[in-house]
């Protein structure tokens, strides 16, 4: 039995409750449209870091192309929002299509007339894409850095495709739906607390779901797989299926994040498939602590918050600072800030229980935490 | 566009040229990955450093272009050596972490260069006889592309000689095949890795001094090469011969698809074909003998 | 599933921020905080350009020249006796930053106007917030048009103005056979649609149309196609770093500007400086402004700017000058709005409405007199054709005889006509915020 307080399940859940309660208090005490919108955007980044943590820290699958699900989800949502501002009679097709030589709505856009159906597609398409792509790759036992590079390739290919399909996607300029998302009369105005609450609820939901997943029997096998996939294979488990599922689950969370991002910014473009952005998701998770869902989210908040607020002070040196801190964390603190907390708590716990052997829980990267 | 034999031949020749550009870009990466298993995300920035090294040498010290190329090798190899000693050597048993750490390195290099040189594009001058073409009837090829092709062949020959004809090469191959066993024969694997990393960085530096002339010298110029270079290495399987074959095939594919369709679609098609290929042959064209994944 | 018209209208109204029924159960609901001016207080404007990243090359200059223009105005006593206070933001060439910072400028800093963006993608990224909050964007560069919002003023040439003279000139000088090359995105394609109209009028023949991926540096396949087609000249809308690679590889492939020049809409002073003048020499550019323009205003502008602390990059070019004039359009519009409504009642939207017809006279505007269209809020200007000289400067070879009217929907008359209140569709409806 580990005695490190960091691994105490009850305590972990308590920390989750405190963290989310703090986030929930913000809109009650704050009345700043910009700040709420900004924090909601951080919430989206938090979801992305969470999805990376689930896939990489927990499932051991480094994914440099999480922008795939994020972008597909965002496009689905933006298409839905765009169609909400269209009218079958007066303006049946989005203005940009007229400039691109289309005089009828393409079949691929038809389903997005229906808001519910559109949002469902925004979530299903990326998830199914991940199931198929992940299934193919993991079955061929593509793993580790190879898989990471493959996700990069797909990401670049998608960006190219969305640019090239200009009549359907408006190419590089992207889609900017002119009105806020309206779900059955409930308007998610990005400049009111409504949007904050929606993102907050989805962040809590996906975090709790991911946490429960890690604590389930399924999670146990995935965890074993991360430590030694060959051994799991010899025990008769179909490794590819488990890898595919955890990969697809992280894709679903990223797709949810993409949807939120689209209604928060009312904009989507092939830049969502930018390689740099997908890698910065990994940076958030790495700095916060890839092995901990919560710390990954905190990592996203910290890095993006710093980018917004520290960045302008130093302007030019910011990327330098980010690069250096990232190098230092990878070099000296592979568990990120979460790993640091784990080590520190471990030391505290050990002091309290002096009879405990010194070898336990000293912040090994393999031990799974919050 | 009408199909004519001449334009198809031109497309084939261009394919070779594009392939040689891919190869020059991917050579350093192949060596680093093939030997040490390090996924060097800063490879594109090493290329960028090579271009800036040439620019600085030419502009401030008046070094002629042909001398800038080998000097860029030296400069970037030294930078690579420093980075290896300070950072990479602690991460050899953590391949995913090297990937991330080198991404951090790439951010630092890119921003560092921007702070020193500014973000406006720089310009490397080359002898004017390189900036024209050779033509035989409708068949034409630019001399600079021929030059890159020849440099590519020269580099491959040099690397081959180094790997298979020198003592360093023997040590290097021993370390690649089995690090522990090599160590028991008294080979200092740390030293071998460090020199390999420097060599790979230096090769990227040469690529940079060539690409700076072909295209543009900018702090962000390396980003465009890194994904393509990786796909070449992975498709090739991490071996020298593999990378040669992979860059030849993808170069031709890119050129011929661009000839038939257009450049954008060609790029998309090549990416997708590589992914499909690796689904069926994850070890790449030429599987390396070692226990590497 | 059908969307009834009422809901459509409701959405549009919400978008305009006109009605915002408070959701009683949600705390913290607020009215859109519109920017306004206070007598004697500084006038806050946002300057939103990329100072770092891949877009920094053109955009940094725009940010610098904006500060130069504001200093110039402040030294002359500001606007209505009030100083202008610029809030300078680095958008880091990242659309997420554009979007976030535009929000910050509008919602938190409450700027009266934003000057910013270079690519259409960044403009589209910030337009939703600009439109929803009835703020104002001065967009100072050439673009494709096909947009009709009530919150933008554009001082660059539209696609219908840009190549109007260039194509007939090239056909006349070099022959009718032309090959189009562009970067693969919206603006080149739209520009080419316009160019085709001028080409047909001039009796030219289009041999091929190729687009390379944005940022691509491999022009081999395109140059091979050009070689096979043997055009008399090339019409290029390749942008950014690609443009430099294109010109270099063009010469390296053995083509010459004397026998097959490139007529470009983008290759200006910074590009030729970056590629090396020997690669640019002999090619043509159409733009409303060149550094080499001979008039006292421009000479003063060039000298003043380059010797100021903002002139560190050593050149002036069309994009920069369009940004400079946008500052004076703003000044004119703001003075008009203050005169009409009084300082306390000036809003961003009223400044935009007041910009209709605002002139920047030839003793202020380096490119010569320009004015803002009263309907679509783009700029009446005089496109000029310059030929790059061996030293990298341009020689003006032709100037349009009169101002060319901007028309964002010139090639889509079926879509409608852009009016001050919105897009007037052929069935007589007015649609707001068409982007």
List the helices and strands and how they pair.
The complex is a heterotrimer of chains A (370), B (293) and C (435).
Chain A: H1 9-29, H2 33-58, H3 67-84, H4 95-99, H5 115-139, H6 144-164, H7 166-169, E1 181-183, E2 186-188, H8 193-215, H9 217-227, H10 229-234, H11 239-265, H12 275-288, H13 293-314, H14 318-332, H15 336-352
Antiparallel strand pairs in A: 1-2
Helix pairs in contact in A: 1-8, 2-8, 2-11, 2-12, 2-13, 3-5, 3-11, 5-11, 8-9, 8-11, 9-11, 12-13, 12-15
Chain B: H1 5-36, H2 43-61, H3 65-86, H4 95-117, E1 133-136, E2 139-142, H5 143-165, H6 167-177, H7 179-184, H8 189-214, H9 223-236, H10 240-260, H11 263-280
Antiparallel strand pairs in B: 1-2
Helix pairs in contact in B: 1-5, 1-8, 1-9, 1-10, 2-3, 2-4, 2-8, 2-9, 3-8, 5-6, 6-8, 9-10, 10-11
Chain C: H1 5-15, E1 43-49, H2 56-75, E2 84-90, H3 95-108, E3 113-116, H4 120-132, E4 137-139, E5 152-154, H5 159-162, H6 166-174, E6 177-183, H7 186-201, E7 205-212, H8 220-229, E8 233-237, H9 240-252, E9 262-264, H10 269-275, H11 277-280, E10 284-287, H12 296-307, H13 318-341, H14 348-354, E11 359-360, E12 370-372, E13 379-380, E14 384-388, E15 394-399, E16 417-419, E17 422-424, E18 430-431
Any overview of this molecule?
The complex is a heterotrimer of chains A (370), B (293) and C (435). Chain A contains 15 helices and 2 strands. Chain A is mainly α and 370 residues long. Chain A has one domain (5-352). In chain A, helix 2 (33-58) crosses helix 13 (293-314). The model of chain A is unreliable at 355-370 (pLDDT under 50). Chain B has a two-stranded antiparallel ribbon with strand order 1-2. Chain B is globular. Chain C has 435 residues and is an alpha/beta fold. Chain C has 2 domains: 43-157 and 294-372, Rossmann fold (3-Layer(aba) Sandwich), CATH 3.40.50; 161-287, Response regulator (Rossmann fold). In chain C, strand 12 (370-372) and strand 13 form a beta hairpin. Chain C starts with a helix and ends with a strand. The model of chain C is unreliable at 1-32 (pLDDT under 50). Chains A and C meet through helix 2, helix 4, helix 6, helix 8 and helix 13 of A and helix 1, helix 3, helix 4 and helix 7 of C.
């Amino acid at each position: 039995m580990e005695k490190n307080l960091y691994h105490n399940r009850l305590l972990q859940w308590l920390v989750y409750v405190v963290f989310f309660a703090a986030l929930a208090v913000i809109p009650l005490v704050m009345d700043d449209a910009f700040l709420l919108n900004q924090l909601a955007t951080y919430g989206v980044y938090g979801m992305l870091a969470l999805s990376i943590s689930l896939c990489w820290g927990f499932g051991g699958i480094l994914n440099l192309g999480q922008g795939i699900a994020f972008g597909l989800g965002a496009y689905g949502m933006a298409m839905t929002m765009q169609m909400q501002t269209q009218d079958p009679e007066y303006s049946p097709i989005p203005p940009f299509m007229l400039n691109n030589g289309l005089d009828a709505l393409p079949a691929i856009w038809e389903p997005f007339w229906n808001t519910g159906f559109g949002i469902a597609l925004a979530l299903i398409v990326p998830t199914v894409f991940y199931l198929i792509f992940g299934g193919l790759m993991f079955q061929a036992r593509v793993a580790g850095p190879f898989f990471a590079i493959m996700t990069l390739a797909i990401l670049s290919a998608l960006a190219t495709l969305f640019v090239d399909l200009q009549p359907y996607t408006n190419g590089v300029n992207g889609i900017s739906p002119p009105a806020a998302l309206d779900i059955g009369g409930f308007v998610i105005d990005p400049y009111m607390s409504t949007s904050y609450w929606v993102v907050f609820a989805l962040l809590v939901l996906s975090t709790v779901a991911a946490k429960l997943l890690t604590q389930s029997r399924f999670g146990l096998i995935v965890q074993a797989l991360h430590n030694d996939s060959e051994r799991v294979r010899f025990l008769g488990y179909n490794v590819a299926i488990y890898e595919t599922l955890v990969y697809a689950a992280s894709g679903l969370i990223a797709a949810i994040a993409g949807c939120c991002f689209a209604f928060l910014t009312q904009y989507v473009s092939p830049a969502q498939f930018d390689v740099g952005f997908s890698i910065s998701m990994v940076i958030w998770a790495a700095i916060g602590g890839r092995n901990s869902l919560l710390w990954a989210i905190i990592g996203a908040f910290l890095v993006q918050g710093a980018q917004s607020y520290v960045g302008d002070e130093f302007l030019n040196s910011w990327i330098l600072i980010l690069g250096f801190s990232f190098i230092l964390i990878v070099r000296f603190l592979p568990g990120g800030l979460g790993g640091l907390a784990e080590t520190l708590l471990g030391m505290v716990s050990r002091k309290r229980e002096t009879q405990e052997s010194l070898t336990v829980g000293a912040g090994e990267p393999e031990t799974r935490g919050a | 566009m009408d199909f004519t034999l001449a334009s198809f031949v031109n497309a084939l020749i261009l394919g070779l040229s594009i392939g040689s550009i891919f190869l020059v870009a991917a050579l350093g990466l192949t060596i680093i990955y093939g030997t040490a298993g390090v996924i060097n995300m800063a490879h594109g920035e090493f290329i960028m450093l090579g271009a800036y090294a040439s620019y600085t040498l030419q502009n401030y010290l008046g070094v002629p272009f042909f001398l800038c190329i080998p000097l860029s090798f030296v400069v970037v190899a030294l930078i690579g050596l420093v980075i290896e000693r300070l950072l990479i050597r602690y991460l050899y048993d953590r391949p995913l972490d090297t990937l991330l750490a080198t991404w951090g390195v790439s951010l630092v290099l890119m921003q560092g260069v921007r702070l020193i040189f500014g973000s406006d594009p720089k310009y490397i001058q080359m002898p004017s006889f390189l900036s024209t073409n050779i033509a035989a009837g409708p068949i034409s090829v630019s001399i600079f592309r021929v030059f890159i092709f020849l440099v590519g062949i020269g580099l491959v020959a040099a690397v081959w000689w180094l790997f298979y004809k020198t003592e360093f090469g023997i040590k290097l191959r021993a370390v690649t095949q089995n690090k522990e066993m090599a160590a028991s024969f008294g080979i200092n694997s740390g030293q071998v890795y460090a020199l390999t990393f420097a060599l790979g960085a230096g090769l990227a530096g040469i690529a940079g001094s060539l690409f700076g002339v072909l295209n543009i010298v900018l702090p962000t110029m390396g980003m465009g090469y890194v994904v393509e270079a990786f796909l070449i290495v992975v498709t090739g399987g991490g071996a020298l011969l593999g990378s040669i074959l992979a860059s030849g095939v993808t170069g031709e594919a890119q050129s011929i698809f661009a000839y038939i369709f257009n450049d954008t679609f060609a790029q998309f098609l090549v990416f997708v074909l590589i992914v499909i290929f690796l689904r069926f042959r994850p070890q790449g064209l030429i599987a390396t003998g070692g226990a590497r994944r | 599933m059908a969307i009834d018209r009422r809901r459509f209208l409701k959405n549009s109204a919400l978008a305009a921020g006109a009605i915002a029924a408070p959701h009683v159960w949600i705390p913290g609901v607020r009215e859109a905080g519109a920017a306004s001016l206070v007598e004697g207080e500084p006038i806050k404007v946002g300057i939103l350009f990329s100072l770092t990243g891949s877009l920094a090359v053109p955009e940094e200059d725009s940010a610098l020249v904006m500060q130069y223009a504001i200093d110039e105005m402040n030294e002359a006593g500001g606007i209505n006796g009030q100083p202008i206070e610029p809030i300078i933001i680095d958008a880091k060439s990242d659309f997420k930053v554009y979007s976030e910072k535009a929000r910050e400028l509008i919602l938190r800093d409450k700027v009266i106007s934003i000057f910013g963006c270079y690519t259409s993608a960044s403009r589209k990224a910030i337009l939703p917030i600009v439109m929803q909050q009835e703020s104002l964007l001065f967009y100072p560069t050439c673009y494709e048009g096909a947009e009709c919002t009530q919150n933008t003023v554009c001082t660059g040439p539209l696609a219908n103005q840009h190549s109007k003279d260039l194509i007939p000139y090239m056909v006349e000088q070099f022959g009718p056979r032309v090959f189009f090359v562009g970067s693969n995105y919206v603006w080149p394609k739209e520009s080419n649609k316009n160019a085709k109209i001028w080409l047909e009028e001039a009796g030219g023949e289009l041999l091929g149309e190729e687009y390379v991926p944005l940022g691509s540096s491999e022009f081999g396949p395109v140059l091979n196609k050009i070689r096979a087609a043997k055009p008399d000249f090339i019409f290029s809308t390749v942008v950014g770093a690609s443009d430099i690679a294109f010109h270099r590889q063009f010469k390296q492939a053995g083509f010459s500007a004397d026998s097959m020049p490139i007529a470009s809409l983008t290759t200006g002073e910074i590009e030729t400086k970056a590629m090396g003048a020997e690669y640019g020499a002999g090619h043509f550019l159409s733009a409303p402004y060149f550094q080499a323009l001979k008039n006292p205003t421009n000479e003063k502008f060039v000298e003043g700017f380059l010797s100021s602390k903002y002139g560190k990059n050593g050149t002036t070019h069309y994009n920069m000058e369009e940004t400079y004039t946008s500052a004076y359009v703003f000044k004119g519009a703001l003075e008009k709005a203050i005169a009409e409504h009084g300082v306390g009642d000036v809003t961003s939207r009223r400044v935009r409405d007041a910009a209709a017809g605002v002139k920047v006279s030839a003793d202020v505007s380096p490119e010569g007199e320009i004015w803002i269209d009263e309907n679509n809020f783009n700029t009446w200007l005089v496109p000029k054709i310059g030929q790059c000289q061996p030293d990298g400067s341009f020689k003006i070879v032709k100037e349009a005889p009169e101002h060319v009217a901007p028309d964002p929907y010139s090639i889509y008359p079926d879509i409608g006509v852009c009016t001050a209140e919105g897009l007037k569709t052929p069935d007589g409806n007015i649609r707001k915020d068409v982007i």
